[in-house]
Amino acid sequence: MFGFGQDIGIDLGTATVIAYVKGKGIVLREPSVVAVDRNSGDVLAVGQEARRMLGRTPGNIIATRPLREGVISDYTVTEKMLKYFINKVCGKFIFAPRIMICIPSQVTEVEKRAVIDAASQAGARKVYLIEEPIAAAIGAGIDISKPCGNMIVDIGGGTTDIAVISLGGSVVSTSLKVAGDKLDEAIVKYIKRKHNIMIGERTAEDLKINIGCVYPKIQDVEMDIRGRDLATGLPKTVTVYSSEMLEALIEPAMMIVDAVHSVLERTPPELASDISDRGIYMTGGGCLVDGLDKLLQEKTGINVMIAEDAVSCVALGTGKALDNLDALDGKTKK
Questions:
Q1: SS3 state of residue 126
Q2: For a tag on the chain, would you pick the N or C end, based on fewer CB atoms within 10 A?
Q3: pLDDT of residue 297
Q4: Residue 334, pLDDT score
Q5: For residue 96, what is the DSSP state?
Q6: 152 touches 281 (CB < 8 A)
Q7: Which residue would you say has higher pLDDT here, 333 or 215?
Q8: C-alpha span between 236 and 230 (Å, rounded)
C-alpha cells in the first residue's frame, strides 16, 4: 500500500523552497513568494513567476513572502504555496505523500504546529519535522551519529541557525533572526543614508550577490544601480563599490560572529576541542557572502569551511533523513 505515496523532504525557507524526492534527488527549487489577488484571494502565481512581481504589483495584487524569519507569518498563503509545490512535485498521487520539513532550531510549539497543520492541509499523509542545523550537517556529508562534536552555521534567508551536534542531536544551539534578508535590509538603509537613494529588495539582493563582502577585498569592485532619488523623486543611477558594501554589511555579519562565539562559550570542553580540530562548517545561501568565512575564521581562530553545495545542504540532509522514515514510524508516532 505504501509504495504509491512518495516521500518528500522540503526545506521551507524564508527565501527559497527546495524539495527533495526520495530516489530522484532535488526536483524543485523556487523562491518562496506568492502573488495573491486581494479581492478574490486566488493565487495568481507562485515561485519564480511571483518573485518577478515583487515590488511591481498594482493595488489588487499582492506579491508576498508568506514566511518571515524562518516561521510562517501568513498561514493561508503558506498552505496554498505548499499545496502548489506538492502538486508540482507529485502530480496526481494515489496516496498522499509523507513529508519531512525543516524548521529553525529555536521555534516554539505553536510555530511547529503551524508548519505541521499547513503541510497536512496541503495534502501530506504524515508530517515530520527536522531541525535545520541537523539537516544541514547531514547534507554537508558529516556523520552526525558519532560521539564527536561538529559545529554547523546555517545562514538562510530569514534565520541563522548555529548548533553543535553530537550523537545525532544538537547539544548547544541558537537561532538568530539575522540572515540574508537582514543583510539586504542593511544595504537598503546604507544606500539611502549614503547616496540618498531608495532601492528595492531585489536591487539590494543583486548588490549583495555581486559585490557584497564582509572582509576587505584586495581589489575594489563596482556596480551600477538605479533607484529613486529622495531629493528630486526621479530615477537616478549611482555606482556602488564593494568597500561600501563592507561598511553596510559588517554590523549584521558581526552579529552572526558574536552568536557563534556565544555558542562556543556554552559548548562542553570535550566537544569544543573536537570543533577546533574539525573546524566549523557553514551552509545555506547566506554563507556565500564574500569573506564571511574569513571573518569568522579570524574572530574565532578556528578553521571555517563552506559546505560543497551550500544552498541545497538542508534539503539534501532532509532527503537523506527520509531514508530513516520507516524507523521513525516504528519508533515515534507523532
A1: strand
A2: N
A3: 94
A4: 41
A5: P
A6: yes
A7: 215
A8: 10
**Domains, the chain, with CATH or none:** 7-135+314-331 (3.30.420.40), 143-178+255-308 (3.30.420.40), 180-248 (3.90.640.10)
Secondary structure percentages of the chain, helix, strand, coil, to 5: 40, 30, 30
Tell me which residue has cell 523552497: 17
Here the cell at position 250 is: 559588517
Cell (9 digits) for 182: 537582514
Q: Which helix (H) or strand (E) holds 82?
A: helix 75-90
The total of other beta-carbon atoms located within 10 Å of residue 260's CB is 21
Judge contact between 168 and 144, C-beta under 8 A.
Answer: yes
User: Among residues of the chain, what percentage have pLDDT more than 90?
Assistant: 43
Longest CA–CA separation in the chain, Å = 67
How many angstroms separate the CA atoms of 42 and 127, rounded? 26
Lateral strand order in the sheet of 25-31 = 25-31, 16-21, 7-12, 98-103, 126-131
- Cβ neighbours for 272, distance < 8 A, ≥ 6 positions apart: 149, 264
The mean pLDDT of 228-249, rounded to a whole number, is 94
Which residue, 168, 133, 186, 65, is CA-closest to 317?
133
- For the CA atoms of the chain, what is the radius of gyration? 21
Is residue 183 over pLDDT 70? yes
Residue the block writes with cell 569544543: 272
Residue 176, H or E segment: strand 169-176
CA 91/CA 89 separation, integer angstroms:
6
Q: Is the dihedral of CA 198, 200, 201, 203 positive or negative?
A: negative
Characterize the bridge pairing of strands 280-283 and 304-306. parallel
Whole-angstrom distance, CA of residue 210 vs CA of residue 222: 9
- Which residues, 6+ apart, have CB-to-CB distance to 263 below 8 Å? 151, 162, 163, 164, 172, 173, 174
Residue 333 has pLDDT above 50, yes or no: no
Please report where in the chains the cell 544538537 appears, as a residue.
170
